[in-house]
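Subject: Protein record for review, amino acid sequence with backbone structure tokens
How to read it: Take the token row as a discrete description of the fold.
Enclosed: The protein record, placed directly beneath this head.
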Amino acid sequence: MQISERPYNTFVTMQFQQVKEFILDKQKKELPKTLSYHTVGHVIDVYHAAENIGSLEGITEHEMNLLLTAALFHDSGFTVGPNCHEEKSCHLAIQYLPDYGYTKREIEKVNGMIMATKLPQLPQNHIEEIICDADLDYLGRDDFFPISDKLYIEFINAGVVNNENDWNKLQVSFFENHHYFTNSAVKLRQKKKEENLCLIKSKIKS
């Protein structure tokens, strides 16, 4: 994905708080109301999970700002359309981040993180591993089922699944093919994730 070679003011540093306010407001206004899972609530959830895991993993302040920028933008492409939304999110990052002092290299790192969240997750470095774990942090949490119910409704409306039994089978397959990448996420979420998987399996009707 090409980023134009527009000139950057080397004396301007990234304006993280301003871009946070901008992209959250944009998604509040423009995300389709039909979405029940991919909402601003999900964006904020991933933001806080990324902040937590990033802190535990000991990343630098600069890396944290890039990580949190990627978390804020990672599903922004849904404002354009659901298909290939990660690529659309990258285009929005390329469009808007230069106005907030982000350099070409910083935007490339942000977009690398956004694309790493595309399923199946294929992170290429430590910071991409962190955002992948943050995006699916809820799999190993106590609030997993209320959150997964929102995704179920979204999948029903999109025709991805036809009923709850199909949904639970899909979740079992997803869980069994998923793994957390960072040591921090494994310590935080793996045990509860396994418990959640057992509960899902108990709901499946033969």
Q: What stands out?
A: The radius of gyration is 17 Å. Residues 1-12 have pLDDT under 50 and may be disordered. Residues 24 and 149 are 23 Å apart (CA to CA).
